[in-house]
Design the sequence.
């Protein structure tokens, strides 16, 4: 099973582009993810993880995510290689985002003038299907 769950802060605003072949949106960004433990007397370290989000998830990330914001990502690890113009082989490992969430609290997450509550673990607006409809509170069973 290839499943990754990350929570970290964006190191830069997402970069968005479109593929040449079928004009599909792809958004890429990097997350600074704190390591769980720090050695005594040392500062806590972070890993910088590259993330790629495609289509609707990429559109959501490019529209709402900003540098410094804390986000949650669920996805999978992917490795790929390519040869550059000089014939040098390059290797890259990245996370392909399948789900993206806000992880800042409402008062901390005022990025871009829009505040959101902590929604990690709930469906983010960018992941709702076209047939998604909000139900009124009268429809809820509790």
Sequence:
């Amino acid at each position: 099973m290839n499943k990754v769950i990350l929570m970290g802060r964006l190191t830069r605003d997402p970069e968005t582009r479109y593929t040449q072949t079928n004009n599909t949106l792809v958004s890429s960004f990097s997350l600074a993810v704190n390591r769980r433990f720090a050695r005594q007397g040392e500062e806590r370290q972070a890993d910088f993880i590259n993330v790629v989000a495609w289509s609707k998830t990429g559109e959501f990330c490019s529209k709402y995510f900003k540098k410094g914001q804390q986000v949650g990502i669920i996805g999978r690890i992917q490795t790929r290689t390519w040869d550059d113009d000089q014939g040098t082989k390059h290797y890259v490992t990245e996370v392909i985002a399948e789900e993206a969430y806000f992880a800042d609290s409402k008062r901390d997450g005022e990025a871009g003038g829009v505040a959101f509550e902590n929604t990690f673990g709930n469906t983010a607006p960018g992941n709702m299907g076209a047939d998604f409809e909000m139900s009124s509170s009268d429809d809820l069973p509790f």
Summary: The first strand starts at residue 4 and ends at 10. Confidence is low (pLDDT under 50) at residues 111-138. The domain at 4-124 is CATH 2.40.50.140 (OB fold (Dihydrolipoamide Acetyltransferase, E2P)). Strands lie at 4-10, 15-18, 25-34, 46-54, 70-83, 89-102.
